[in-house]
Amino acid sequence: MTVDGEPVVALEEAAFAYASRPVLTGVTGTVGAGEALALIGPNGSGKSTTIRCLLGLYHPDAGTVRVLGMNPSASARDINRRVAYVPGEVALWPNLTGQQALDALAALRGSRDEARERELVERFRLDPSKPIRTYSKGNRQKVMLVAALSAPVDLLVLDEPTSGLDPLMERIFGECVAQASRAGRTVLLSSHILGEVQELCSHVTIIKDGAAVETGSLERLRHLGAREIRVRGEEDRLRALVESLEAAGIDASRDEGDVLVEAGASRVPDVLGAAVSAGL
């Protein structure tokens, strides 16, 4: 939903520094009601920091941030009752069982759909009777996914959510997110997995060096008119890009140290995603 016509998420030149080191240097973008938007970028580009600003965990040094029409720095409690968040690295209470952790997470949010929760416990093949300390990384991730995907909220914020999942569980996750999108929920997904982004999201924002360098619909990116793409950067990252493109069946050549790619419009998102994954 929106509040007074505002988008669900809105950032305007958001900036944040950690220990005097700039992490975000000006992120601007919006996520409309019912959209599924992906944040993509290399490790350290600012994706997780952006998400933490949206949740009120970090307070931006400059710019504006709004979630569901509210300022996270002042209204984090109200926002987080309407948002479900899954981090890439899950830390839960080790002495609780999986079910007790689900109970606690629902109590913190203040809302719950127990029937949907039970359904997802079965789909993700989670044994909620076991203590958290006995769970693998993948099973700890499942607890957070069940809690988030079953929650009756307006916005799902998913930060590398399939970390630790096997391919079958990744597929179940994709089906659940697609179902949430069809139900009208807004999804913000941070991922470096291009296939996951293309399957689940309609819009994408590319973050590099703390700034949003490209944003738009995947459909628009697919229809970019460019046929020749030139990429500059550090040599080891360029070599990684060439290897990634060749593995995907995309021809690439070198020209005066740069990487040149001849790509049809339909492959432009693949090339951009490979460049981002290589840290370029």
Short description:
With 280 residues, the protein is α/β, with parallel strands linked by helices. The chain has helices at residues 47-54, 72-80, 98-109, 114-123, 137-150, 167-182, 194-200, 218-222, 235-247, 268-277; strands at residues 9-18, 21-31, 36-40, 62-67, 83-86, 155-159, 186-190, 203-208, 211-217, 228-231, 252-255, 258-262.
Q: What global shape is seen?
A: globular
Query: Order of strands across the biggest sheet?
Result: 5-6-7-3-8-9
Beta-strand percent range: 25-35%
Unreliable stretches covering 5 or more consecutive residues = none
Indicate the radius of gyration in whole angstroms.
20 Å
Helix content: 25-40%
Helix and strand run = EEEHEHEHHHEHEHEEHEHEEH
Overall mean pLDDT stands at 89
Structural class: alpha/beta
Strand segment count: 12
Termini gap: 35 Å
Total helical elements: 10
Question: Can you lay out the helices and strands and say which pair or pack?
Answer:
Layout: E1 9-18, E2 21-31, E3 36-40, H1 47-54, E4 62-67, H2 72-80, E5 83-86, H3 98-109, H4 114-123, H5 137-150, E6 155-159, H6 167-182, E7 186-190, H7 194-200, E8 203-208, E9 211-217, H8 218-222, E10 228-231, H9 235-247, E11 252-255, E12 258-262, H10 268-277
Parallel strand pairs: 3-7, 3-8, 5-6, 6-7
Antiparallel strand pairs: 1-2, 1-4, 8-9, 10-12, 11-12
